[in-house]
Amino acid sequence: MKLRRVFPLIIAFVLVPAALMLTVGILILVFGSAARDFLFGTLIVALVATTVLGTAATLAVLNREARLAKLQTDFVNKVSHDLRTPLTSIRMFVETLQMGRLRDDPARQGEALAIIAEEVARLSTLISRLLDWARMEAGRRTYSFEACDVEAVVEEALSALDAQLLHHPAEVIRDVPDGLPRVRADRGAVGDALLNLLQNAHKYTGPDKKITVSARTAGPNVLLTVTDNGPGIPVPDQKRIFEKFYRAKDPLFRSIEGSGLGLSIVKHIAQAHGGSVTVQSQPGHGAAFTIALPAAQEEPKQP
What we know:
Blueprint: H1 7-31, H2 35-98, H3 106-137, E1 146-148, H4 150-167, E2 171-175, E3 183-185, H5 187-203, E4 210-218, E5 221-228, H6 235-238, H7 251-254, H8 262-272, E6 276-281, E7 287-294
Parallel strand pairs: 2-4
Antiparallel strand pairs: 1-3, 4-5, 5-7, 6-7
């Protein structure tokens, strides 16, 4: 049932009776003379106030659940499409190779195999993301914390991005100074979060892609920032892009493949490490996502 269909029922069965009861309560308070009348009037007004507040709280919960249900439906539809598209491409090229249509054209065979490999990688990424999200939702995602070198984490994430850069080149700038403190983190999880931000930066920028990954200290934290030269993120969307299933309403972003889970996973990983993730962006001037992680407490050296 859509939420707007509930409003007439609330007006008919809650607000109108509440208004009548409130009127009676006020009349008793104004014209009543005995202490009993004053007590009854006070009780009626309190009952009406409780009813109105309870109705408002119920409506807020219903609105939240309706919005979440819509996001979940959109998510299922989008994931189904994202799974179907690469599977269709894989099946088509496999059938073409099986029928021997490219037997005498090694170059075309290589192109077909490259496309199959790329589509398999897309499927693998999507499925891994879904599994990660499911484990996080169930509270089964575990982390193995250790003192990690920030430079090594950045290098691993950049190496994982290389496969994507082979097909769609981009200028990637690395800005990681020497001497940064280590972070207490699950190296694989932080690497996945950083790779997620790099892939988003690559995906949402135009043909002239420029991505910068940088690291610096800020008080007790180490900040990992991924900056791009894309179209930027509208201000209303910046408040919600870390919610699960949410995708920006801008048609430019809607036309780009995505599950709406990536940034939610990044947020979960950052918070599990005692850190946070934030975004700074102005429409038309790119975006900068920053993961803040607490620096590891270095053990004192033995004399």
